[in-house]
Amino acid sequence: MSLALEEHSGRIKALELLDGSRVWLKRAEELSPRLRVLKGDAAKGLERDRTGLRLLAGAGLPVAPILLEGTDYFVTPDLGRTLHAMILDPETDRADLLAAFASAGATLAELHNSGFCHGRPAMRDICWDGKRVHFIDLECFRPGKSGPKAYSKDLLILLHNILSRNRDSRVLADEMIRTYREAAPPGVLQHLRVRAMSLSWLIPLTAPVRRLKPSSRELHAVPATLQFIWGLGIA
Question: Helices 169-183 and 148-163, interaxial angle, to 10°?
Fold first, then answer.
């Protein structure tokens, strides 16, 4: 491990152990002054991540456990492929893909019912081990943020991220929201709809940029995400 720490100055690195298992070494990324302005303080982000993993694990929630740690790093086990990797791989089994996104919706609801927000539940921050998902990368985690309005932001971020991909994105968003709403805390979906209605101005605002950047998945997912939420039929 000491050798890996000496060699690795990036944010995250996979390490193969002698028993054939894999773990992930995570450190604060060394950023240039310009990137520090854009991304924020990497050391603080690492501590938010560490704090979130400890706190959620203590609450019995499915997050990556910390196996080893030091002042400027920690190590977690490999918990399977991320949803992002699965959706990009054309060889991913469809039933497995649907099961993973169903688990993501149910697990996000579990997190919210426990009084926590993820902060940025993107597909690359959710791992599927074949049975259930686990959350990783909690650099945007804020322990004090809770309540239906805050939970609706988590949901909006995840929906937008899913709908920014092409492969079965609508089907997978449907599956995620189906299991989320089955166990959602009261008021979250209503706040989600209000949030989406308040962002309707983004559709005409981003239209010229979407025409100029036809390959931008994130921009083209803006109207798709808002229209998806408006069509949910929330009571």
Answer: 160
Mean of pLDDT values over 84-112: 96
| pLDDT tens per residue across span 170-179 | 999 999 999 9
Alpha-helical segments (H) within the chain: 2-7, 33-39, 42-58, 83-88, 94-113, 148-163, 169-183, 188-198, 202-212, 217-230
Q: Tell me how far CA of residue 19 lies from CA of 7, 28, 78, 87, 120, in angstroms.
A: 22, 27, 13, 29, 33
Percent over 70 (pLDDT), the chain: 90
pTM: 0.89
Q: Give the residue among 44, 41, 64 at the shortest CA–CA distance from 54.
A: 64
Radius of gyration of the chain (CA): 18
Q: Distance between CA atoms of 235 and 230, rounded to whole angstroms?
A: 11
**Per-residue pLDDT, 35:** 46
The DSSP bridge partners found for residue 133 are 128
Question: Which residue reads 């989406």 in tokens?
Answer: 196
